[in-house]
Amino acid sequence: MSVKPRPVFLEIPNIRLPIPGIVSILHRISGVGLFIMLPVLLYLLSGTLSRESAFETYRAIVSNPLVKLILIGVLWAYLHHFLAGIRFLFLDAHKGLELNTARNTAKLVFAAALVLTVVLGALLW
């Protein structure tokens, strides 16, 4: 009778994903975040073009620094989701599947989303 080897215990916090895996997970998280925030954004913007009082309420809410930080987070989620989505479209078309190319495009998506968020966030703050 042979003894079966014991299963390996995976320590989830100690597993290090490669950058393409991190970009993929952040793509999913940003998509969920955008989906959740969509009704909030629609409610926030509803009526701002039709009534002056609704626009003033909108301005009062958006002038809160915490709300501004949340909106910058939504901006990052949009930019990351958009750029990663373009990357995944290329991967689906079998472009950029080589290991170095996949790593470089993942780094590019990650960096571009952060840089664009900082630039646009600074302009909109």
TrEMBL record:
Places the protein is found: Membrane
The record ties this protein, via Pfam families, to:
Sdh_cyt
SUPFAM superfamilies in UniProt: Fumarate reductase respiratory complex transmembrane subunits
Give cofactor(s), names only: heme
Q: Which GO terms describe its molecular function?
A: electron transfer activity; metal ion binding; oxidoreductase activity
Principal location: membrane
Q: Which GO terms describe its biological process?
A: tricarboxylic acid cycle
Topology in the lipid bilayer is annotated as: Multi-pass membrane protein
What binding details are noted for the cofactor?
The heme is bound between the two transmembrane subunits.
Q: Which InterPro entries match?
A: SQR/QFR_C/D, Succ_DH_cyt_bsu_CS, Succ_DH_cytb556, SuccDH_FuR_B_TM-su
Q: Which GO terms describe its cellular component?
A: plasma membrane
- List the keywords (alphabetical): Heme, Iron, Membrane, Metal-binding, Oxidoreductase, Transmembrane, Transmembrane helix
Transmembrane segments annotated in the record for this chain = 25-45, 66-86, 106-124
Binding residues annotated for heme, in chain numbering: H81
Q: Which family does it belong to?
A: Belongs to the cytochrome b560 family.
Assembly description: Part of an enzyme complex containing four subunits: a flavoprotein, an iron-sulfur protein, plus two membrane-anchoring proteins, SdhC and SdhD. The complex can form homotrimers.
Q: What does this protein do?
A: Membrane-anchoring subunit of succinate dehydrogenase (SDH).
Any idea what this protein is called?
Succinate dehydrogenase cytochrome b556 subunit
Q: What organism is this sequence from?
A: Neisseria macacae ATCC 33926
Q: Which gene encodes it?
A: sdhC
